[in-house]
Amino acid sequence: MNRMSLPRSRSRRIAPVVAVAAATALTLAGCSSSSGGKKAEESAAGASAGKADTPRMTVAMVTHAPSGDTFWDTIRKGAEAAAAKDNIKLIYSNDETAADQASLVQNAIDQKVDGIAVTLAKPDALKDVVAKAEQAGIPVVGLNAGLDVWKEQGLLSFFGQDEAVSGQALGTKLNGTGAKNALCVIQAQGDVNLEQRCAGVKKTFGGKTEILYVNGTDMPSVKSTVTAKLKTDSSIDEVVTLGAPIALAAAQSVSESGSKAKVATFDLNKELVSAIEKGTIQFAVDQQPYLQGYLAVDSLWLYKNNGNYMGGGEQPVLTGPAFVDKSNVDAVAAFAAKGTR
Question: For the CA atoms of 86, 42, 290, 52, what is the dihedral angle to 10 degrees?
């Protein structure tokens, strides 16, 4: 395959710096050609403004997503939309176990793909295999998790939000709600994104912040654990969750325990948007997962076909945080219903 080599040095500084808006405009200027496969076409129907006539590429996206999580479905939809537009064959795989995720990256290297998009929730476990990809001349971009290490590990670009900053923003917002005692629920111990969110809340929230670890792969267990905690500590007046499914379970816990606590969360899905409309969830921090998936794949097309670096190769491309609450939920509800917000 005709892959561009990827130096591990910081020589990318000499690359042209291209604004995200300009890069996206360039991407949309392609003319009609074959898309990234039937599945991608169906998922991305109506999402693209044109299709590239550039040579077929193969891109692997490897995430730490658990099975059946709608947040990650949204990331995948964004990736498929970009692949359909850019004449890319997208190979998507996921495993929440870091060692198995590293094996999936190795599989992509063995298949000699043209580019890899990877999440770095546990970056030390992925460091060596990411280096192998780069040594093989395969460009690698990061998304969602790995903001603190993407440059250190030699990635071209990173797409996501600063989790520490988003946590601090949520903590600051809680200061205006009258909350005094927050329970921050982490569904995967050791996940750097999740740990940073709660740490950020604790840093800026003026009240007490307590951490509660739950098993995010078992929703009945999540609900029972949060319910038990609320029953034993009636002073908890705020539950902060780090994902939409966890937030919906926590809202049930509040109801069943008789607690007066409010629920705020990170991340959206269509059920969560409905809960904000109904008032059972206060607000959500939106990091735009569709955009993360879309830009990660699109950036690899831009790099191969025009030598572009999103963010100039030096700065991450931030997709959040933004707050969705009753004041603006109607603006995103229609998109959430389609599974793209």
Answer: 10
